[in-house]
């Protein structure tokens, strides 16, 4: 699904954010990406969504080399990727419905189809019946679920999350990870960037660790002991 070969990213100004990174996420796999602040996690995600482009090396999504795609094709690529942020980037002056519907409106779905899909997405994240609420009226955990509903509403094959539990307590964080697990069970590939090692240690997924831009490799984590 995602394949990095010898990928380096040097920002204008000279900062080496990623150095000869090799990384492979299989189709249908769920995995964690970890490392200290500044290690390069966000940069790696930005290369996948072509917010940034690699300086050298090859980034491929589903076998397509995305380093070479034209700017015109970037929106088509992004439609296949659900993106979830720590601060969820919700429109606070719009209803929950409007926020979740946004990707479908952009894609030009019919009104009836949009209603059906938004209801389905809100049902999946446990927010059924909150369509008319404003995000400001919701708790932090519920706001994160609105962001997740928006990310999955057009059923992308790949979900990327950048510190999705950063503002949540351990119980809510685990609930969010369980939610990612249900999407993964349905066949969605999931990559979660986080520095919360305690959370990772409680789950059985592969963990990729970045250290100062270098990939330390994947580790299988078992219940009870973290190895990062
Ligand atoms: P993380 O997500 O692990 O905290 P980042 O990918 O955000 O790490 O950052 C990796 C390195 O690249 C850091 O040293 C950071 O300061 C630098 N960096 C990130 N974005 C930019 C940018 N737009 N311009 C210059 N340097 C950047
Ligand atoms: P914040 O907005 O406080 O920086 P977020 O967790 O909301 O933190 O976002 C993490 C980073 O990802 C931000 O620097 C944001 O600009 C960046 N970002 C925005 N859009 C994308 C995208 N499509 N793919 C990858 N990174 C993105």
Automatic annotation (TrEMBL):
GO molecular function, one term: ATP binding
Compartments in which it is found: Cell inner membrane; Cell membrane
Keywords, alphabetical: ATP-binding, Cell cycle, Cell division, Cell membrane, Membrane, Nucleotide-binding
Recorded superkingdom: Bacteria
Domain spans labelled ABC transporter: 2-228
Membrane-topology descriptor: Peripheral membrane protein
Gene Ontology terms describing biological process: cell division
Pfam families in alphabetical order: ABC_tran
InterPro entries: AAA+_ATPase, ABC_transporter-like_ATP-bd, ABC_transporter-like_CS, ABC_transpr_LolD-like, Cell_div_FtsE, P-loop_NTPase
Main location: membrane
Subunit structure: Homodimer. Forms a membrane-associated complex with FtsX.
Annotated family: Belongs to the ABC transporter superfamily.
Function: Part of the ABC transporter FtsEX involved in cellular division. Important for assembly or stability of the septal ring.
PANTHER family: CELL DIVISION ATP-BINDING PROTEIN FTSE (PTHR24220:SF470), IMPORT ATP-BINDING PROTEIN (PTHR24220)
NCBIfam families: FtsE
Protein name: Cell division ATP-binding protein FtsE
Organism listed in the record: Shewanella cutis
Species classification: Bacteria, Pseudomonadati, Pseudomonadota, Gammaproteobacteria, Alteromonadales
């Amino acid at each position: 699904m995602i394949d990095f070969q010898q990928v380096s990213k040097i920002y204008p100004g000279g900062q080496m954010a990623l150095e000869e990174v090799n990384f492979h996420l299989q189709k249908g796999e769920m995995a964690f990406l970890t490392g200290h602040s500044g290690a390069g996690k966000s940069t790696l995600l930005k290369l996948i969504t072509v917010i940034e482009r690699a300086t050298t090396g090859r980034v491929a999504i589903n076998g397509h080399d995305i380093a070479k795609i034209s700017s015109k094709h970037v929106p088509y690529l992004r439609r296949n990727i659900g993106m979830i942020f720590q601060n969820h980037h919700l429109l606070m002056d719009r209803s929950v419905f409007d926020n979740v519907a946004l990707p479908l409106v952009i894609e030009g779905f019919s009104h009836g189809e949009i209603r059906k899909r938004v209801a389905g997405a809100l049902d999946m994240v446990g927010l059924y019946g909150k369509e008319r609420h404003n995000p400001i009226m919701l708790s932090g955990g519920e706001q994160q679920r609105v962001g997740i509903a928006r990310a999955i509403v057009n059923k992308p094959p790949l979900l990327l999350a950048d510190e999705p539990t950063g503002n949540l307590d351990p119980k809510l964080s685990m609930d969010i990870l369980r939610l990612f697990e249900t999407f993964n069970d349905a066949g969605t590939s999931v990559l979660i960037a986080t520095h919360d090692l305690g959370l990772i240690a409680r789950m059985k997924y592969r963990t990729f660790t970045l250290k100062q831009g270098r990939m330390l490799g994947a580790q299988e984590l078992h219940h009870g002991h973290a190895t990062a």
